[in-house]
Structures are given as C-alpha cells and as structure tokens.
Amino acid sequence: MKDEAHRSDSAVLTAVREGVLHVTINRPDKRNALNRATLDALRTAFTEAKRDDALHAVVLSAAGERSFAAGGDLREFDALRSEADAAALFDHAAAALDAIRATSVPVIAALNGTALGGGAELAVACDYRVAAAHACIGFVQATLAITTGFSGGEDLFALLGPARAMRVLAQARVIDAHEALALGLIDDIAEQGQPLEARVAQFVQPFVDRPPHVVRAMKQIAATHRRALSQATRDAERAAFVATWSNPAHWEQAQKFLDRQRASTDGSKTKPA
Fold first, then answer.
1. Three-class DSSP category at 80
2. Tally of domains in the chain
3. What is the largest CA-CA distance in the chain?
C-alpha cells in the first residue's frame, strides 16, 4: 500500500505506512494526558480505521519519550462532581476505548514511557502492548480513591483474572516493563538501546505478512471472544466508578494531587535558568 498521510490535528496525529495505521497521541507537554478532545480524536481515528479494508494493523503510540498517557486530565475533569457527571465521563471515555476494541485489525500499543490510570486502561484496550525498556504501567486509580473510570477494568480482569487484577488495582503501583511482561500486562519489550519503533515493527510484521482479509478474520474471532468475557463486567465497572468518583474521599485525594501539580509547576517557573 502506498504511504500516505491520513489525518492530523492538535491532539492526535495519524498516518498510514506500508499497510499499518499509526495513531499518535500528541500532547507531550501535558504528558499525553487524556482530556475530552483527545478521547474524541482517538475515537474518530479508530472509527475511520475500521472502514479501511487495506489495513493490516494499527499502532497506537504517543509523542515524546516520557509518557504514553499520564491518565485522565484531572485539571479538566475536576469540575465534574455529580454522579451524572461521573457517569457521562465514564461513557465518553468508554466510547473511545470501544472504538479501539472494535477496530477490525489488531491494535498494538507502543508504550514509550509511563501509562498511568486512564492511560493504562487505554493500553489494555488494545490487543497487544509493546514497551520500551524504560516504560512502565500503573493502575494507580486507587491512589485517588476511585476505581477504573475508562472501562479498562474489563480488559484488566480478562488479562489477569479476577484475583490478580484486584491485587494490581489495590496495590496501585507503577510496574516496570519486565514485571508487567511476567504478569501478562504487556507482550514484548524492546532491548536496551533498541528503538521502540524497531521492536514494534518486528512485532507487527506477522500481521503485515498476511492478506488483510485473513487478518480481519482472525481479529473477528478474537473480538467475539473478548466481548463474551466483558459483557457482564461493564455495568458493574461503571457503577463502581460513579460511586467512588462522587465520594468525598476522592475529591480529598484529587485536591492533594492537583496541589502537588501546581506546586511543581510554580517551582519550575521560579528556578534559575
């Protein structure tokens, strides 16, 4: 397939190269945090990808080397306080992740750095995760006194099973790439000094080598199995998020987090050049 630019905007960049759609979250100055505009752009990119019969795979990556996605953009979501607000936030984010899950070819998340909170949920919504040697993943939602809020809990429980998934959520810690590989959270790691892009290209190659209609058939089988596992989980996950998001304990922790962010920003502004 001829290389071509496909779509670009301020939040997400997309391009097709050799039958692979590359989708890049483009907010490096915000550690690629997921606000509503970014979630909308991701949903659009993956919805459009479903219509391209020539694709073999999609690679989801992020700009920079520091962060794949630092979670939901709490500065924007801070105003969402009611149960109705929380339910709308969950549904909005879930729609973006559902567009990824519904993509008709395999989706590979290229973890260039930290994937935290909603960013970890975004990563596990993809079919595979390939990580840079320094990358890490953390389901840290419990540090804000909430549960998974983007619908990624259903993917985490399917990947790890109920017992291990609950423990990962309760520990709420950042897990390095090698431990995440052993747990089954990621699928491959770039060797020290190896560019992540090269490792991802190696991982994607088997899908590129097969005719697109065969790859799509494989993905259809996998997607049917995945839906069967997750259907009973979504409503419970949504209800749990709404209950924890609207609880005062969450807002107490969220305020502490925002205060630390503001102090860090103010401090950097006053440091000598």
1. coil
2. 1
3. 58
What predicted TM-score, i.e. pTM, was given to this entire model?
A: 0.92
180: domain CATH number is 3.90.226.10
DSSP string, 170-219: HH--EEEHHHHHHHTS-SEEPPTT--HHHHHHHHHHHHHTS-HHHHHHHH
Whose CA is closest to 135, among 149, 119, 148?
Answer: 119
- 251: enclosing H helix or E strand: helix 248-270
**Angle at CA of residue 152, ends 149 and 157, nearest 5°:** 120
Host domain of residue 64: 4-270
Return the structure tokens found at 109. 């998340």
| Tokens representing residue 226 in the block | 């995945």
Q: Which of 46-50, 153-157, 209-213, 263-267 has the lowest mean pLDDT?
A: 263-267
Give the tens place of pLDDT for each residue, 101-117.
999 999 999 999 999 99
CA-CA distance, 13 to 90, in Å (whole number)?
A: 24
